[in-house]
Automatic annotation (TrEMBL):
<feature type="domain" description="S-layer family duplication">
    <location>
        <begin position="24"/>
        <end position="236"/>
    </location>
</feature>
<dbReference type="Pfam" id="PF07752">
    <property type="entry name" value="S-layer"/>
</dbReference>
<dbReference type="InterPro" id="IPR006457">
    <property type="entry name" value="S_layer-rel_Mac"/>
</dbReference>
<protein>
    <recommendedName>
        <fullName>S-layer family duplication domain-containing protein</fullName>
    </recommendedName>
</protein>
<feature type="domain" description="S-layer family duplication">
    <location>
        <begin position="266"/>
        <end position="510"/>
    </location>
</feature>
Length: 558
């Protein structure tokens, strides 16, 4: 299972039945390096399934192409020093001003210092740990590069262009396309092993790895495919998987991108793009039931970069979920009797309170849990569950909110319970609807000299903070036009599609342009900005290496 606190970047959902063949790359799978300014990517993972969930040895092929001296390996961009010798791109800036006295911090002790200006020339000094490595006089409009010696050979580890020189009281220069590379390169050789994979070829055009052992994926599995890059989670009842990139290191914000889609804006026909959970990993997907509900689409008229009214649409179509706990079928409240209506909103799982009463987040849906005396089980939003007493086959369970008890019940499985003969039930009225805030089936009570515990099943926890959703409400660029029986939001005014679009809250649509054979192609891609303080989100570099590039550059390669 993924590390606690790690951030999931989910990719597309694919079938892994016998005979299926897929190619994952940066356009459809998170983790691989991708430039959102040009659409450039290098890596791909080709998978062939000979049986349901089974890949023969050599049928999983990871390839990274090499173009103009650059490549990517396991999600990071590299400069190719020579065949098999790769220097990681540590800093990448499109444009940056450098003023005398304000050093350009390049990370790992490196910095670029403007020593002075003379006409159209600037004196740049490359330092490490404040000690000069080399100094170079660079003319305006010229490229510059600084080298270091690695294993007896000199290699470029900093390069860029001196775009402008401004000679004034406070001298300043403008730098473009600044790239700093690692001085501890990665050396690859045929036969090197990376988890289940082995390097099988290294040429001037590509690096290839193949699985050296068979890969088998069972229903309900969570399995690492490429170490520290791609994981697969298999649905419980069908051979479909969603790919994940579990990130590491500590930062507070990150960007997760969906599949990019290109349209030809030079022809006379309208263009459209649409994303679901299959193509955008931040939309809600339940692998246990192989279910998703959200859809995001945009439509453009021919010859215009304005999205017309009704051309930007977010829709979530709910489905009815039956309780796993058989005793909850007799709950009694109309909206929660026998089950509840589930839908995704902004990538998370919610349930309807009623036709005009909003939606509530489903915080926990867990099949089983062994709870020990005095153990405090976190139910989210300040709620906890604790066994406060055990006596023979009786268990006293206490639900607390912000460390204050809100409900306690003594359950004797098969004899007495809040519902049926086994179910603990804490309920609360929200917007006029009696909601089963927390329920759990007490399967058995274990009391002994060495082990005491309560065996719980079918734990289900709803938020007690409804999200109001009514027709006419405005959310970002969209307006709620239907709140029940499905959720639908549309733009009620024209939206400019010539730059990134903030659809609502954390959901955006980005874009970049390319011209090919006289035609203008525009690529759109959805992404979510997240801000969160967790213990694991970015791919680690080394114990002493701190990435200096922006977060977007690091995650998706701007």
């Amino acid at each position: 299972m993924p590390a606690e606190g790690a951030i999931e970047q989910r990719g597309q959902i694919i079938s892994i039945a016998a005979g299926d063949h897929h190619v994952l790359n940066a356009e459809n799978c998170p983790g691989f390096y991708y430039s959102t300014s040009s659409g450039t990517y290098y890596e791909s993972l080709e998978l062939t399934f000979s049986e349901d969930g089974f890949i023969e040895t050599g049928d999983a092929i990871y390839t990274s192409g090499i173009s103009y001296g650059s490549t990517a390996f396991f999600g990071k961009k590299y400069k190719v020093l020579e065949d098999g010798l790769l220097s990681e791109s540590m800093v990448s800036y499109g444009s940056r001003d450098l003023q005398k006295g304000n050093d350009f911090d390049l990370g790992n002790g490196y910095k670029l210092v403007l020593q002075g200006i003379n006409g159209d020339y600037a004196l740049l000094e490359f330092q490490k740990n404040s000690v000069p490595v080399t100094t170079e006089s660079v003319e305006q409009g010229s490229k510059f590069s600084f080298k270091t010696r690695i294993d007896g050979t000199e290699y470029v580890i900093l390069e860029g262009t001196l775009d402008k020189v401004l000679d004034s009281k406070d001298p300043v220069v403008r730098l473009k396309s600044v790239n700093r590379y690692s001085d501890t390169p990665l050396k690859l050789e045929v036969g090197d092993e990376f988890g289940k994979f082995e390097v099988t070829a290294i040429t001037s055009k590509e690096i290839e790895l193949k699985n050296s052992v068979p890969i088998r994926l069972q229903l309900g599995d969570y399995s690492t495919i490429l170490d520290n890059l791609i994981d697969f989670q298999v649905a419980d009842n069908v051979y479909r998987v969603c790919s994940y990139n579990m990130t590491e290191d500590t930062i507070k914000s990150y960007k997760v991108r969906g599949t990019s889609m290109a349209v030809n804006r030079s022809d006379s026909s309208p263009d459209s793009c649409s994303w679901t959970a299959d193509s955008f990993g931040m939309l809600f997907y339940d692998p246990e039931y192989d279910l998703s509900t959200e859809n995001l689409s945009l439509s453009l008229d021919a010859g215009s970069d304005w999205i017309p009214e009704g051309g930007l649409v977010y829709e979530s179509l709910p489905f009815n979920m039956t309780y796993k706990n058989p005793e909850m079928g007799d709950y009694g409240e109309d909206w929660f009797n026998e089950g509840y209506s589930v839908l995704g909103w902004d990538g998370e799982e919610y349930a309807y309170l009623g036709s005009d009463r909003g939606i509530v987040n489903i915080l926990l849906d867990e099949d089983e849990k062994l709870l020990y005396p005095d153990e405090e089980y976190d139910l989210k939003e300040g709620y906890t569950l604790k066994v406060t007493d055990l006596d023979s086959d009786n268990a006293c369970l206490t639900v607390s909110r912000n460390n204050l008890p809100v409900y306690s019940s003594i359950i004797s499985p098969g004899k007495s319970a809040d519902l049926g003969t086994h179910t603990l039930l804490y309920k609360e009225k929200l917007n006029g609807v009696e909601v089963p805030i927390f329920s759990a089936y007490v399967d058995s009570v274990i009391e002994g000299e060495e082990l005491s515990a309560v065996s719980l099943k079918y734990l289900l926890h709803f938020s007690d903070s409804p999200l109001e959703m009514s027709c006419g409400d405005e959310v970002g660029e969209l307006t709620v036009v239907e709140a029940y029986p499905k959720l639908r939001l549309e733009n009620k005014h024209e939206v400019w599609a010539g730059s990134d679009i903030n659809v609502f809250e954390e959901l955006w649509i980005g874009r970049f342009e390319k011209t090919s054979s006289g035609n203008l192609y525009v690529t759109f891609y959805p992404y979510m900005n997240k801000v969160e303080n967790v213990g694991s989100i970015l791919p680690s570099t080394t114990s002493v290496s701190v990435p200096v590039m922006s977060l977007e550059e690091y995650l998706i390669g701007i």
